[in-house]
Inverse folding.
């Protein structure tokens, strides 16, 4: 049973804390991109970025829907550049030890672009511990919480959903995971969980203690 577990990890705000530096940097880069490529001033570009993010769950999805002249890959590449990545990353030093401790295959499943996810895993010192990195390009630009990407992960790796554990900070994504039959771990500072969360942890490092419940 234990060896058949498959751990499916989200990246941002699950394996590291993107709030202080990484997310603000991406937001600024997206606003600048919209200014340049849609001919908007900074205020209008920022408003549109936030509007698409709220309306569709990702700025990228608003661009795909309303601005077919924009190449999604070009957008993702230019808005996820991190010359100072090492100094921007906030993460816990025990991460590598934790991932090595958890029995079973590990897969990264993120709505981020693949080049960025691989850079981050490298900088976290854990890239070699993941069997696969499934990002938004691989899911045909249909990000979580859409079921499409989850099914892609199950199919490519020959996984039954009941074997798989989704570790995430985003409740919408965990809701889909549970509906599809996965077990769910919510990484959060919250003190209460909705019913579709099996285990709640303040940090992924706490997974070690909750292993018997999963
Ligand atoms: Mg996340």
């Amino acid at each position: 049973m234990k060896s058949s577990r498959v751990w499916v990890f989200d990246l941002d705000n699950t394996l590291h804390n993107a709030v202080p530096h990484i997310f603000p940097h991406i937001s600024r880069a997206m606003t600048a991109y919209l200014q340049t490529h849609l001919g908007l001033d900074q205020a209008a570009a920022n408003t549109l970025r936030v509007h698409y993010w709220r309306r569709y769950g990702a700025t990228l999805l608003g661009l795909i829907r309303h601005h077919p002249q924009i190449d999604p890959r070009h957008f993702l590449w230019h808005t996820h550049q991190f010359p100072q990545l090492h100094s921007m990353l906030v993460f816990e030093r025990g991460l590598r030890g934790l991932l090595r401790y958890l029995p079973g295959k590990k897969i990264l499943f993120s709505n981020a672009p693949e080049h960025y996810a691989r850079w981050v895993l490298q900088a976290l010192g854990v890239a070699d511990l993941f069997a696969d990195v499934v990002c938004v390009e691989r899911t045909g630009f249909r990000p979580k919480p859409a079921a499409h990407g989850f099914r892609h992960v199950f199919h490519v790796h020959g996984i039954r959903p009941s074997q798989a554990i989704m570790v995430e900070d985003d409740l919408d994504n965990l809701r889909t995971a549970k509906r599809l039959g996965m077990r769910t771990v919510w990484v959060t500072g919250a003190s209460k969980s909705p019913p579709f969360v099996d285990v709640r942890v303040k940090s992924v490092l706490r997974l070690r203690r909750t292993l018997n419940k999963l």
